[in-house]
Amino acid sequence: MGITIKETQKRLRNKETTPEEVVSDFLSLIKDKNKEMNVFLDVFQDTVQEMKEKDPDLPLYGAVFGIKDNILIKGKRCTAGSKILENYNASFDATVIEKIKEKGGVFIGKTNMDEFAMGSSTENSGFGPTRNPYDLERVPGGSSGGSAVAVSAGMCNTALGSDTGGSVRQPAAFCGVVGFKPTYGAISRSGVISMASSFDQVGVFANTVEDTKLVFDSIRGKDERDSVTVDFNGGLAETKKKDKIVVGVPKEYFVEGISSQVKESIEEALSKIKGKEIELVDISLPHTEYALPVYEIIMASEVSSNLARYDGVRYGREDTESAMKSIEELYMKNRGKGLGTEAKRRVVLGTYTLSSGYYDAYYIKAQKVRALIIDDFKKAFQEVDAIITPTTPTLPFKIGEKIEDPLTMHLSDIFTVTASISGLPAISIPCAKKNGLPVGVQLIGDRFKEELLFNIAEKFEKIWQI
Ligand code: GLN
Known about the structure:
This protein is an alpha/beta fold.
């Protein structure tokens, strides 16, 4: 495990270390490993200076962030992992970036990702795949693979990602770090490049639940620039039963499709819970089997609409501008050259599901089933404080293993999309190692009950101590 924010903070405040030392430790790791792992697309040179200008009493003092390359930092390049934005420089700070700056945090660079956050392996990046630090032949998960590896390999002590269907939790599980997605509306997306707006959330990577909570508390809250955001009290940490935490184990998550290695690891981890102050109860979320198709349809529909702006007029590639004879040609050349295969596939699918005649059959139907899935969780949370599931159905897979088969690739998201569909907070924490590779467990909480979710996650973290 890399150094935590809390530890860095303590050492800095006690003058056991200096901003120069902290930052140069991270930078030298990046220098050593970035070539083989392809984690950072851009590394910043002004981080030490930034840290020196911060007040040491600020809550995020000592936090050194890797930032997924779909989050805007003023004056820095922001590609979203796409060739179409290869030369795009951000003209303003995302709200989360503003907040980090105000609270004392600094940035060390922009991390690699699947193009426009579409993928589960970071192989869909326009700038080459990122590699898993536990085994360089394997994927780190995606789409926030760069951020997950940055924390896992100790290149920074925390990172931001975005999570639309699992893109923070899934790579966190594959890289053996904590990954958290908040309740929909808890963190502003202003200045975050949109993928599918009814799911998109900013998420946090860290080495511990405590650090994750620290970052979350520093960046959450209402923002006029993102109309779905709300202020809330952090979710009072009240449990359903006095002195006992009730955690539901949904039977639908432990059946088909889950590899024996993951299943065994999680069963073993759960057996360590017995007799503690946590009670595990069997529950059912009956509409789980529809979650993936519902996600795919609504997500692709929203992607097709959000990606329409990359047309070569406002955002485009200079090299295609010169010899254009018509507007169609401009669109075709820019999108044809600038977008990768997965992005194109989703734009085509989403255009189809939104088109007249198919809209009711696909998009509207998917929205109806979405309501049923939300209802499953509402019922479950009348009985339980949290729900526990595997984060991923398999261990980190080999680079190239699933890239030719998008359907198999999408199965990687089977356990993470439900919380996205329902707008619920969810966190992945390491629970075991199998064949030297990390295994993660996902805890899903009730809406705006992140405080309780963090409390529960910390208890599990303490029991497992991975
Ligand atoms: N892997 C999922 C997808 O490709 C989720 C992506 C995400 O959360 N950004 O759609």
